[in-house]
Amino acid sequence: MSTNETHDRPTRRRLLQSVGIVGLTGLAGCQDIAGSGSDGSYPDGRIEVIVPWSQGGGTDRATRATTPTWAETLGADFVVQNYSGGSTQVGGERLYNADPDGYTVAMWNMPQMQATWLFQDAPYGMDDFDYVGTHHLDPTMWFAPPGSPYEDMAEFIEYARENEVTVGTTAAIGNTALSALLVEDTYDDLEFNLVNLEGGTPTRQATLAGDVDAAVNQPWAFNPDHVGDVIALGTHDSGGQELWPAPAFGELGLDEIPLVEEGFGQWKLIVAPGGLEDEYPDRYEALVDSYAEVFERDAFHARAEEQGGLDEILEYNDPESTATEVESYSEFMEEFEPLFDRF
């Protein structure tokens, strides 16, 4: 499916499976960028922030670290709601079916969002959304339960050659699944039992409990509070990262695995229903400007620092740059469709 294909908006919401909803209302503060809707009253109600994962994972924690300051810069109440399932497609469809009136946004993930329309026949595409800005980029990293008989990724690969192993991923599509598939595909004598654990929280829990032999997540999403509780096998890049002490694949001599030199991770970004910018340009501008202002506030950076070093990977990009990144990730993921067909 073309990443630029626009779909007819359905009249009824389609959900893949049961939806769990957890709400948290942000605090409304000073009205820095408000009253800028076309009717002069926006925002005059609470704004829903969709998180397409369960509560407690990296996307959820990042959202809840952001909304208190965003409430101040916009002058609005935010409510965070979790719609997990379908490797983020449940939440994606919720956003797609929402009215483009400035009262619904989502913190979504790349490349999960692209993979839903590329590989899961989601009813939406890239052009069905308006983009507000990026939030942060988290590297792709492998973990193992405490007490495992391997200390890094090279040792795990050797172990997996001789033993049946189960590898957990945060989704059936996206960066964690891609990393697992690329490692497995690189070596003819390697075969993983891949398990989609549907989110960072279940992946963390399964790793801590020893229910998997290894798992793929992001260092911040896994939660750096657990440094020392699990074994950090390595990051899928050549240079490593500072959030969690771990060797890079390149440092372990695993350069033959694709994308080690380039490195890749997971972006978090704020997305709105398509049509908002056209139908309510002032509201869209208010959301964009107030969101950008969040990254200038000391209180937000202090809160992000308290969240296990989130402040170290914050990376805001404006709407145009964000849309360009979305398109680039779509093209990037499309190259690996044959691999995802095997999951």
Automatic annotation (TrEMBL):
Pfam families: TctC. This is Tripartite tricarboxylate transporter substrate binding protein.
